[in-house]
Design a protein that fits this description.
Blueprint lengths: L12 H37 L1
Keywords: Membrane, Transmembrane, Transmembrane helix
Protein name: Aa3-type cytochrome c oxidase subunit IV
Organism: Plastoroseomonas arctica
Length: about 50
């Protein structure tokens, strides 16, 4: 039988928004470094075999 004391909802929207903002910042930072790494690799390939 279900627990009648359980309350649905009640999530903290501010905490969820803060967590999503942190994850978005981490994603955009990682994307920036990935693009820089690809450019460095391509320039290196060009200089070695271009």
């Amino acid at each position: 039988m279900a627990d009648p004391q359980y309350e649905f909802g009640g999530s903290d929207n501010a905490a969820i928004a803060e967590d999503r903002a942190k994850m978005w910042d981490a994603f955009t930072g990682a994307t920036k470094y990935a693009v820089i790494a690809v450019v460095v690799i391509l320039v290196g390939i060009y200089l070695l075999w271009g």
